[in-house]
Design a protein that fits this description.
Blueprint (H helix, E strand, L loop, with lengths): L22 H11 L10 H4 L21 E5 L5 E10 L5 E7 L2 E2 L1 E4 L7 E2 L2 E4 L8 H11 L7 E10 L10 E12 L2 E14 L2 E11 L9 E2 L3 E17 L25 H14 L1 H4 L14 H6 L1 H10 L22 H12 L26 E3 L13 E8 L7 E8 L6 E9 L1 H10 L8 E2 L11 E7 L6 E2 L4 E5 L4 E9 L11 E5 L2 H4 L3 E2 L1 E6 L3 E2 L3 H4 L10 H12 L1 H14 L13 E9 L4 E9 L4 E8 L7 E6 L17 E2 L4 E9 L11 E2 L10 E7 L13
Helix pairs in contact: 4-8, 7-8, 12-13
């Protein structure tokens, strides 16, 4: 149905039956919902140059007085390490450990022991290495940023626990207080441990509990892949040699080589068992031109072997290939998941160190085609490139794209091609000739191309209907034979782009591509119809947080509703109310969910007739599980989509393999659950349905191919 862009609110809907005038709210949901979809730069750390600089450590040297003994840290026998609690790819919580021997510093034991001195200890954090090179690369790039801040320093300011006289062979418990510098932050920390003098060697093992958040290096959270605790244990395991008698220690940088060199060994299993899996399930997306090329390029056998341990982790967990849907769902097209035997094969190869039995330079040869190339009948760009500002981190901008259609046209496929990584997501609507008049008035009204448009497009005149969208990693959208999207003469596109700026705000002139049906193909085409359904989100604070005076106000629902309205306008207050009324619930129904985990379940009528084309579910970063069930609790029950472990980065639109009939009065149950422990660093507050990334949603899209000609759909998602 045509959907006016007017922000008109529907009448109060009956419980468990949304009513057609609820379309305005549904459109808002679809427009704002994609704002929290995974970002394209999520894996930028992988594709950027990661040459490890093995730079020698040069620590300030101390000068000993007569009668003092000068010791110099020997990197061939010393190390610095971190240990942090980690949950990797859904596995049980463990401990990640990284170590480097690239460190240096001087220690003086004075004749008056109390006057002993420890010089600045310098550590090359670029060379920290764990048991997983994928982890190391991510830490170097995104958290330690070691290409810019290669060295950490600990500058001791005080020592306690020293005896009046040091006896060789005895351990002494001491504490060393000093200033620790990581990246651009310096903070006082205390290392505690033991020191021992053995002949010409001074040995010390010292540990400190440090918060990563203090230094802006964590806690680390990569959705569905890894989360860490904030507290990390730093350990200095030192052996210092008497500088007057020992030979000069070797260059620290020559002792540790944190590289991603390929392990090569004769192993027939690679070419006969591993490589076929890679070329069938991975290569088509990750070679140049594939949808995964910009996130993780894999061109050669060497590229694959270089991250063998990472491949073992991400495939064993189901994080890759990206297919969160479980086997309880109906069968879907383009299922890229691995069989248990394939997972085992990759895990065994990874555990063996990633040996290969072919030339590392051998180019990968995809044996399947992930997505066929789409014709480019119309390439549209905005009249003038747009540049935002880093002062506005999240910029929603609407712009006009004109296909210049003089007659009825049918779109068989479309694709938005972002040309800058700051494009976070795109929502595309179609306006008619009357709406164009208002859009032209808005265009450039603030001196820049387009206009600001949080939520709706801001066009309230004429007719504005949903058309489609783009999120990172999404391939071109193509419709099956007999189906398309109709464009009328004078129609134009309103492209709402969410730009997320960090350090730069480059010019954007990203195009939208259309594949049009020929005159013969257009005969008898029908519009796909879709509905976006919002359901309840009510997540009370943990009882302990609600009782904490620091969080008590933020944990009150009424205060959160006020905040959402201030941030996102009047609809921010109304959407949670309508979602609850639609599902026949009240906030009181969720009050008992005060232990950090909450869930909702809502039965709604399909209000569509036809053959199921696609289903999609959406939540944010607290999402734990999602399920969509057709005709629940009946003999005809079918689980349309089950995602037992929600994956924020991979929110796919799933197309059933077999025909599934949908009737208007069919009931569809939508179930979402959330877990606050997935984001332990978030400040406690009550959470309702809202637009922000640190808010939550539970909404779903159901698209069908009608039995015969229909008017346009209103949902922007399909």
């Amino acid at each position: 149905m045509d959907h006016s862009g007017t922000a008109e609110l529907p009448d109060e809907p009956k419980q468990n039956k949304p009513g057609k005038r609820f379309a305005a709210i549904a459109a808002v949901v679809a427009l704002v919902g994609l704002g929290a979809f995974f970002t394209r730069d999520q894996w930028a750390w992988y594709i950027e140059d990661d040459t490890v600089v093995e730079e020698a450590v040069v620590a300030p040297e101390l000068e000993a007085e007569v009668g003092d003994r000068l010791f110099r840290i020997d990197p061939t026998q010393s190390s610095a390490s971190y240990a942090v609690g980690e949950r990797l790819a859904g596995q049980e919580r463990g401990v990640a450990v990284g170590t480097t021997t690239a460190l240096g510093g001087d220690i003086i034991i004075a004749s008056d022991v109390a006057a002993s001195e420890i010089g600045t200890i310098v550590i090359n954090v670029e060379l920290l290495k764990s048991d997983n090179n994928l982890r190391d690369k991510r830490i170097r790039h995104d958290f330690l940023e070691s290409s810019h801040y290669r060295f950490a320093e600990f500058d001791p300011t005080g020592i306690s626990g020293l005896p009046e006289e040091i006896v060789e062979g005895e351990d002494y418990a001491i504490e060393i207080t000093g200033d620790l510098t990581l990246k651009e932050t310096t903070n006082e920390e205390t290392f505690a441990g033991t020191v021992r003098l053995d002949d010409e060697q001074l040995k010390a093992t010292m540990t400190a509990a440090v918060l990563m958040s203090t230094y802006d290096i964590g806690p680390i959270s990569v959705m569905a892949l890894v989360t860490t605790e904030d507290e990390v244990q730093l350990t200095l395991d030192l052996v210092a040699l008497d500088a007057t008698t020992a030979s000069e220690p070797r260059d620290p940088a020559t002792e540790v080589v944190a590289s991603d060199n390929v392990v090569t060994a004769p192993d027939a299993d690679f070419s006969t068992a591993v490589l076929p899996i890679i070329e069938d399930r991975c290569a088509s997306c990750h070679v140049q031109g594939g949808i995964g090329w910009q996130t993780m390029p894999l061109e050669t056998v060497g590229d694959v072997a270089a991250i063998a341990d990472g491949i073992g982790v991400v495939t064993r967990s189901g994080y890759m290939p990206p297919w969160p849907a479980s086997d309880e769902s109906v069968l879907f097209q383009h299922d890229w998941s691995l069989t248990p035997d394939q997972v085992t094969t990759l895990a065994n190869w990874s555990a063996a160190g990633g040996p290969i039995d072919v030339d590392a330079a051998q180019v990968l040869n995809p044996t399947t085609v992930a997505w066929p190339e789409m014709p480019r009948d119309i390439v549209m760009r905005q009249a003038e490139p747009y540049a935002g500002s880093v002062e506005v981190k999240d910029d929603y901008r609407c712009q006009i794209l004109d296909p210049q259609i003089d007659d009825v046209a049918w779109v068989k496929g479309y694709h938005f091609e972002p040309e800058i990584e700051e494009v976070h997501h795109v929502i595309v609507s179609v306006g008619d000739a009357e709406a164009r008049k208002q859009a032209d008035r808005l265009d450039g009204s603030d001196g820049k191309p387009g206009w600001t448009c949080y939520g709706l497009s801001g066009v309230s005149e004429g007719s504005v209907r949903g058309f489609g969208g783009w999120v990172p990693g999404q391939p071109p959208t193509t419709f099956p034979d007999g189906v398309g999207r109709k464009l009328n003469p004078g129609d134009f596109f309103i492209v709402q782009t969410h730009f997320h700026y960090d350090h730069d705000a480059p010019l954007d002139d990203s195009p939208m591509i259309l594949d049009l049906a020929t005159e013969e193909e257009a005969d008898g085409l029908i519009n796909i119809r879709s509905r976006t359904l919002i359901t309840s989100v009510e997540i009370p604070c943990h009882a302990d947080d609600a009782a904490n005076p620091d969080y008590a106000e933020a944990c009150k629902r009424e205060n959160e509703i006020d905040r959402v309205e201030e941030a996102f306008g009047p609809l921010g207050r109304l959407i949670p109310m309508f979602a609850n009324r639609n599902c026949g619930v009240t906030p009181a129904d969720f009050a008992h969910m005060d232990q950090g985990v909450a869930s909702s379940s809502c039965d709604l009528e399909a209000d569509l007739d036809g053959t199921l084309f696609s289903v999609l579910g959406h939540m944010h970063e607290l999402g734990a599980s999602y399920r969509m069930t057709l005709n629940p609790d009946t003999p005809e029950e079918q689980v349309l989509l089950d995602i037992p472990r929600w994956t924020f980065e991979w929110q796919l639109s799933y197309r059933p393999l077999e025909e599934i009939a949908i009737k208007r009065d069919d009931i569809i149950r939508f179930e979402c659950s959330w877990d606050r422990s997935l984001q332990p660093s978030w400040e406690p507050r009550y959470i309702v349905w809202a637009e922000g990334t640190q808010d939550e949603m539970c909404f779903s899209t159901v698209a069908v191919i009608p039995e015969g000609p229909q008017v346009e759909s209103f949902s922007p998602l399909d």
